[in-house]
Every structure is written in structure tokens, then in C-alpha cells.
């Protein structure tokens, strides 16, 4: 059993995939997506729990598995757009061609890669948010460093950052890239104003998904200058 077992499961998340494609031709790209994107985001234990639950998933795992597959397919197609039509053999690097079809143009491949890469990151953020919003149903994830990393700052979601007044065009990949700068800004500018006790309390409540109405109001006031 794997998180994706068939080409039909791939096609479910992208209708452009040809029904007859062999999963073995996609497997290395699927593995790369799992190893380099999914597991670093949610942890190996929670990923393995999803795979184990897949044959007869509880209600809360159905959505998690769906989002995980969607993210994998997005990342997979983004990589496949660059390498999938290329064959490397003793003759050299070849590009597949037939009488009925021809390789897509470089422009089309770039568009395909960009679209699916963003789709992969969007699905990945949706997966993380789903786990976080239902943290009591995912105790193994709740105990991971990945959970602490995903909810370790005063802003942790692309929509939160955008609500604070900075437009990212719903680009989670971009938001991930600036989180290190956000962390520096929190430590340099926000924490000294809030004070160590209030700052630590907010971070703890964010991590446990237990903010009060008053704390949510304070957090919103902090997020705007932070962004």
C-alpha cells in the first residue's frame, strides 16, 4: 500500500494525465515529492499513519489523504514537465516523439511547471492547515517538530500574511521563503514591544490552537506591523 497506488489516483487530481500512463514512469517524481516536500512538512510518522489508514480511513483521514495526494501530484507534474519526456541512454539524451503528438514547447512546459508547482504548494498548505485545525485528531503530528515549525511564529499562513496587508497572490512557496525574515522581524521588533511573557504566551496559544477572543484581537494588531 502506498499513498498513491494507481494512475487513476493521479488522474483524479489532474484530468490532463493520460489514463493509460504507467505509474512506474512517474514513481521517481512521486518519491521526490514525498521525500522533499510532504515529509518535511508533516513528519514521517504522520505520513506513515496516512498510508496505513488509507485502506479503511477514519473520517478525519479521508480529507488528509486527499490533500496529500493532491500536493504530491502537483509537485510530480512540475518535475515531470522538465524531465518526463526525456530519455537518457547510450546514444544520448532523447525526446519522445510520434506521428500523432510532438513534444510541448518550452513555453508550454514552463507554464505547466509553474501552474502545478503552485498547485502543489497550495495543496500542501491546505494539508498543514487541516492538520492544525484538527490537531486533537492527529496526536502524532501534534508531537512533531514539524508542527512546531508550522505554527512557531506570530503569522503562520499565507492568508494571515495577506490579511495583514501584504499581497502574495496566495503563493505559499513565496511565503515559506520569507518566513526566516519574518522570524528575524519578530525577534528584533515585536518581542521587545510585547515583552517576553506576552510574546511567549501568544506563541504557546498559537501552537495549541487555543487563542481566546482577546488574544486573537491582540494578535491581529501585532500581525499588521509585522508583515
List the keywords.
227 residues; mainly alpha; 2 domains; 11 helices; 3% strand; globular
Description:
The structure is a single chain. With 227 residues, the protein is mostly helical. The protein folds into 2 domains: 142 residues, no CATH class; 69 residues, no CATH class. It has 11 helices and 2 strands; from the N terminus they run ααααββααααααα. Strands 1-2 form a two-stranded antiparallel sheet. Strand 1 and strand 2 form a beta hairpin. The longest helix is centred in the middle third of the chain and has 28 residues. The relative contact order is 0.10.
- The tally of strands reads 2
Separate helix tally? 11
Order of helices and strands: HHHHEEHHHHHHH
- What integer is the average pLDDT? 91
Shape: globular
Distance between the termini: 43 Å
- Please describe the biggest sheet, giving its number of strands, its sense, and whether it closes into a barrel: 2 strands, antiparallel
> What is the share of helical residues?
55-70%
Which radius of gyration do the C-alpha atoms yield? 21 Å
How many domain regions? 2
Strand content: under 5%
Overall SS class? mainly alpha
Spatial arrangement of strands, main beta sheet: 1-2
Low-confidence stretches: none
Give a nutshell description of this structure:
The protein has helices spanning 7-13, 27-42, 44-53, 59-83, 106-133, 139-142, 145-150, 158-163, 172-194, 196-207, 213-226; strands at residues 86-88, 93-95. It has 227 residues and is mainly α.
Amino acid at each position: 500500500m502506498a499513498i498513491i497506488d494507481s494512475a487513476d489516483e493521479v488522474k483524479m487530481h489532474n484530468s490532463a494525465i493520460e489514463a493509460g500512463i504507467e505509474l512506474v514512469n512517474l514513481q521517481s517524481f512521486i518519491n521526490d515529492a514525498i521525500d522533499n516536500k510532504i515529509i518535511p512538512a508533516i513528519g514521517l510518522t504522520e505520513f506513515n499513519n496516512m498510508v496505513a489508514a488509507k485502506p479503511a480511513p477514519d473520517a478525519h483521514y479521508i480529507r488528509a489523504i486527499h490533500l496529500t495526494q493532491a500536493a504530491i501530484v502537483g509537485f510530480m507534474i512540475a518535475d515531470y514537465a522538465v524531465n518526463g519526456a526525456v530519455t537518457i541512454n547510450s546514444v544520448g539524451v532523447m525526446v519522445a516523439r510520434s506521428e500523432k503528438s510532438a513534444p510541448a514547447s518550452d513555453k508550454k512546459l514552463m507554464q505547466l511547471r509553474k501552474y502545478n508547482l503552485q498547485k502543489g504548494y497550495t495543496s500542501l498548505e491546505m494539508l498543514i492547515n487541516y492538520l492544525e485545525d484538527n490537531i486533537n485528531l492527529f496526536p502524532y503530528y501534534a508531537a512533531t517538530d514539524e508542527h512546531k515549525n508550522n505554527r512557531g511564529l506570530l503569522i503562520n499562513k499565507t492568508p494571515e500574511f495577506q490579511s495583514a496587508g501584504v499581497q502574495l497572490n496566495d503563493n505559499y512557496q513565496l511565503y515559506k521563503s520569507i518566513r526566516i525574515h519574518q522570524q528575524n522581524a519578530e525577534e528584533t521588533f515585536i518581542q521587545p514591544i510585547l515583552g517576553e511573557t506576552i510574546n511567549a504566551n501568544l506563541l504557546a496559544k498559537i501552537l495549541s490552537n487555543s487563542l481566546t477572543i482577546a488574544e486573537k484581537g491582540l494578535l491581529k494588531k501585532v500581525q499588521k506591523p509585522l508583515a
